[in-house]
Predict the structure.
Amino acid sequence: MRSDRGQRAPLGLKIAAACGLLFLHLPILLIFIYAFTTEEKSFVWPPPGLTTQWFAVTWNRPDVWDALSLSVRVAAISTAIALVLGTLCAAAVSQTRFFGRETISLLVILPIALPGIITGIALRSAFALADIPFSFWTIVLGHATFCVVVVYNNAVARFRRTSGSMIEASMDLGADSFQTFRHVVLPNIATALLAGGMLAFALSFDEVIVTTFTAGQQQTVPIWMLEELIRPRQRPVTNVVAMVVVLVTLLPILLAYYLTRDGDQIAGSGK
Amino acid sequence: MTSAVSFKQVSRHFGSVRAVDAVDLEIAPGEFFAMLGPSGSGKTTCLRLIAGFEQPTAGSISIFGDRAEGVPPYRRNVNTVFQDYALFPHLNVLDNVAYGLMVKGVGKAERLKAAEEALSLVRLPGYGARRPGQLSGGQRQRVALARALVNQPKVLLLDEPLGALDLKLRENMQEELKSLQKVLGITFVFVTHDQGEALSMADRVAVFNDGRIMQVGTPEDIYQRPNTRFVADFVGSSNVLPPDFVQRYSGQRRWGSLRPESIRVSSATSGDGVAARLVGTNYLGATTRLALDADGLRLHAVVPAGTALPAEGEAVMLTFNRDSLHLMDEPA
Amino acid sequence: MTIAAVQSNPTPAILPGSGGLRGALSDLFWRRPKFLLTLMLLPPLLWLGIVYIGSLFALLAQSFFSIDEFSGLINREFTLKTYSDLLQAANLDIILRTVTMAALVTLASAVIAFPIAYYAARYARGRWKALFYLGVMLPLWSSYLVKIYAWKLILAKEGILTWLLAKLNLLWLLDAWLSLPIVGGNSLSVSFTGTFIVFVYVWLPFMILPVQAALERVPGNLVEASSDLGASPGQTFRNVLFPLALPGIVAGSIFTFSLTLGDYIIPQIIGTSRLFIGQAVYSQQGTAGNIPLAAAFTVVPIVIMGFYLWGAKRMGAFDAL
């Protein structure tokens, strides 16, 4: 919406917008304060004192490290799979018009459009029917499935901005299909793929609903947190982990935003 | 002598759409050839068939005597200047120009030197370090030209290369392209919908309509002796005269064409000539274009600026030289 | 490049193929674009088709099985018994509760989202615009569990909200609210009010983005034209802005509605012991081991969303996505 420069917003609107944004951000900031509280048993406010001792305690907790390692490995492998599948799909859909394009877009978006619990229980019942035991790979199977859409959205947006005659120009100048991919297509979609990969990583790292159905006894960081929320053991450790999780997911998001800020937006509907 | 480009009964159909329909075409080596026609007439598809972006549905294409069907673009020694230039945004100007040599495996020092020379050729020396995004439209077009020429193509294809430029720049570029082609001696095939551009630059022009070639000839042929109503109307908007009218002046019952500048307009109300009424005047600077109504037949005349003109609505008498009435081949 | 070299260019017009597998493959891709297309589509389609669609069908099939009440084993024969179980009063209660919550959450999100989206679309420029965008994107992408955890901290009896209300001498208000039936409870973190707040908080960014996208497309001079024609701000909002933003709101509501329908973690951590659809699915497939009933339960949100999407499409909401 365009409007005259210098036009001032009504005060009421300003206040409402500011309150809305504060509502979105204050709760997350609160996490950072609680990570330093000296209080062990309750969520009392204001914190009776501040300490950094819980960072050391958390550092020495093997279960936290195990969960973190599993989460990172799952996210890395899922992102890699999603990058390959999402890029292929985006390239096919945007380079040529063919029958069933809409169906393919829908198919890619469906795992994220339907509530996670449906994806989760569907996968679990499929594993049960096929007698597949829970493992690292059952988690990856689920994560990669809903990560494809994030990569796909980013790649499609970039392909749309990339002039179609560029590929023809490359071939015209003597580059075969492989050289064209390496020297023209890849450099042009690289940042979009990187952004998509970052978001896919963040999505996988944070996912809990599908994971509860596909993990069995294994604990990713979100599953660990969920356990702590339902059956708290050491609250200050949960506080510290929560803060670290916020930081770990924010970095890839900021980076993804930076990589794609001119032109295509990181697809919010991708989550 | 083998033709630079030869089409034999070439068709390209997209489903039921006949983009190019049974076209025969011979382009001579070293020729500046224009393909002229309205949008959707098949001229761009013909260009893409030469470049190898499209494959013919039927017929055969050869380039300097070699069969080209089934040969991908990267194996054709033919280069294209695209309508949107299609410069690679992730490469600087020098690397853009050197791209063709790079994929052919030419060493770095050598290809950059060649690219620098090609940039000088299009009068952009020292622009190599810039990004395509930092250049003006005219400069981008020169880079696209250099990028194609550096490969020393046997045929250079230009797809509406001047379409995106403003008038002044377009006129400069026309002259420049023409002289570049003369110096290099490369066969240029040029697609345009602007008849002025085609007539002023090309050695020969092919006029396209509905996927077919209506007429091929020198600019003068096309302009003075159109063989169909379409060509007469499209190239320089000639007056198309119906057979009955033509019969009165030439004795032959055929379609005729009469250039607007061949018509003389006088205010006399009697005497020899065609009685008409002036319906409108259009001031064009060097000339004035008159719209005339001769008993229901709409005619246009172009007179030099400064000619004394009757007022709109007045009766006028039209005269023309019998020789300038051109009879077309198209059956009545 | 010397000009003489160009004129006597000895190279052929058609170059020979580079040979080898690579050259052959490259030529094949050019000659048969459909082959390349198939090659590109095959891996993602196989993955999504087998892993995802296959699983969905497996789930759907299970909803037509039944469970043997004595042995607890699944009887793999076609029956509609599970669906008749689904229609028991207790289960209908769960469905009604969830749909009501989803509707309320959607409404509240729209109300809170509108000023933010409107400000970002109409007044924010340059740096502020980027800041607004990040201001919505960051909460959207921050950890879902951490966000819920943050609200557990806020809503706890000893937490910051109680402290704040005490400082403002407004504790009586909180107590009065908590003593209300249905929405009240022992503390906010074990009440429907708490569940509602957290739902709104977590899904709000999903509403802001599409509404902003819809408002971006409204020409600013439409608003000026309306006030120029003598409409009060309220009338301008009702007659111009709201109808134009509606597709965006509907698009956003697809997310808020669907996500609320399927969630089982928020009401489990912040809420009462009365179940939502997601929790029912979870407990049926987990502790109760009744996979057929769980599968039948998941069909409910799918059907509701199917109707919802159909309606939204008719309102043109997909253009705002």
Summary: Confidence is low (pLDDT under 50) at residues 1-6, 264-271 of chain A.
